[in-house]
Amino acid sequence: MRHAIRQTVAAFFALLLGIMLNIAPVATANPTAASGAFFGGGSGTPANLEYGVMEQIVSPFFTPNPGAQDPFIVETKYTEESGEELHLRLQQAHLETDNGFFGVVTLSAGAAPAHAAQQQMDQNLADGAPTLPAGSVSFYYIGDPDSPEGLKARLLGVQTPTHKETAFATTYVHGQYEMWAHFPTNPLNLLAVANSVMGLPYVHMETGTGSIHDPLKPENLVNAETEEHADYTIVRVHTKVLPLLRPLSDTAHRVAQTDKQHQFVDKVVGKLDTALRPIVDAGYSNNKLGSLLTKSSSRNEDKETGEAVAQKSTASTYKDRPMRSFSKTVHEKAEKAATKFRQSVAEKREERKAERADRREERKIKRDTQRVKREAARKTRAE
Questions:
Q1: CA-CA-CA-CA torsion for 81, 203, 139, 236, nearest 10 degrees?
Q2: What parts of the chain have a pLDDT lower than 70?
Q3: Would you list the domain boundaries of the chain?
Q4: pLDDT at position 379, please?
Q5: Which of 51, 44, 108 is nearest to 75 (CA)?
Q6: Secondary-structure percent of the chain, ordered helix, strand, coil, rounded to 5
Q7: Which tens digit of pLDDT belongs to each residue from 53-95?
Q8: What pLDDT score does 12 carry?
Q9: pLDDT per position as a tens digit, 162-221
Q10: CATH architecture, range 2-327
Q11: pLDDT, position 59
């Protein structure tokens, strides 16, 4: 009885904390019961991955229901042709489990065939062609290079598969600051860019490995922010130590021998993280999670109504959310510097244009003067 009361009280305070911090509950806290799960590893994932490793990646999102297929998790191969193959295997599994519900979980580049399958399923539904019923499959794209907030979309401007008006639940899951799936919105913030690049080995490549920094570990998934959009959901997992500081942190911990030395390393790295994280966060227009978890702050968000609320994401942008003064100052200074640079370029361009006009005028006057002299010389010779 006392244990139940403690659990109830803990749940109440967790909910209260989530409301105070304006962070949506983590979508992956309770796995969805499913008839089966299909896992697609990335280009670097070993072939014939051990079942335990796949289970470690899939279990935060899906768990077997009473009539689930055996084995519950089926591996799909990363090939260009496997989009059609995945679609057919899902159809077959759906029939064999008496119209069951299925989950698709992909890691990194393994999302490509799943995107193709999902697009085909939506197209077949629209055309009335054979496919799975709407809502019978849920897709989880982990560390996806085609993430709506990844490097391709934000830096290169590549059109990513967003599955507009899809009939199937779509969720993007990735660690905070990782290069492929969570790139800065402001590439002029070089510290944020450098930190994101370091996020490739220290966040992206650790996803699904089971390390203490693995974003998919339950204790790390607890510190996640969900961001609801019209056609998809983003689950962004908080990174405890900035990737930029991981080489220093890891090396110092390897050298440290006593608990006191490890505590000293944590203290130094923590202070550096506290100083640098606001500057890194200033490079993101939707990255409120790091500041929330490193230092609680009050929020006075503007209220919006009507179509604006329906069209906007539940996550606030930089302009409509307060940030710590230091972060805001850095951002404003960067904006002023960029504006000043653009003005300087425009002024120099106008100066060069005026100089070219002056030189043309000088050449014209010189030609006219020479022509008058030649005409005068011809008249003199004629006389």
A1: -150
A2: 1-29, 78-81, 160, 162, 286-342, 344-345
A3: 2-327
A4: 82
A5: 51
A6: 50, 10, 40
A7: 899 999 999 999 988 998 999 888 766 557 888 899 999 998 8
A8: 44
A9: 678 899 999 999 999 999 999 999 999 999 999 999 999 999 999 998 899 999 998 898
A10: 3-Layer(aba) Sandwich (3.40)
A11: 92
* Contact (CB, 8 A) for 276 and 246: no
Name the strands in the sheet holding 233-237, side by side, starting at the edge strand that comes first in the sequence: 73-76, 36-40, 102-107, 137-142, 169-175, 233-237, 224-228
SS3 per-residue string spanning the chain: CHHHHHHHHHHHHHHHHHHHHCCECCCCCCCEEECEEEEECCCCCCCCCCHHHHHHHHCCCEEECCCCCCCCEEEECCCCCHHHHHHHHHHHHHHHCCCCCEEEEEEHHHHHHHHHHHHHHHHHHHHCCCCCCCCCEEEEEECCCCCCCCHHHHHHCCCCCCCCCCCCEEEEEEECCCCCCCCCCCCCCHHHHHHHHHHHHHHHCCCCCCCCCCCCCHHHHCCEEEEECCCCEEEEECCCCCHHHHHHHHHHHHHCCCHHHHHHHHHHHHHHHHHHHHHHHCCCCCCCHHHHHHCCCCCCCCCCCCHHHHHCCCCCCCCCCCCCHHHHHHHHHHHHHHHHHHHHHHHHHHHHHHHHHHHHHHHHHHHHHHHHHHHHHHHHHHC
**C-alpha dihedral, 271 to 274 to 275 to 281, nearest 10°:** 160
Structure pTM? 0.67
CA distance 247 to 249: 6
Instruction: Show the tokens assigned to 151.
Output: 């490097």
What is the Rg, in whole angstroms, of the alpha carbon atoms belonging to the chain?
29
Q: Token match 């990737």: residue?
A: 243
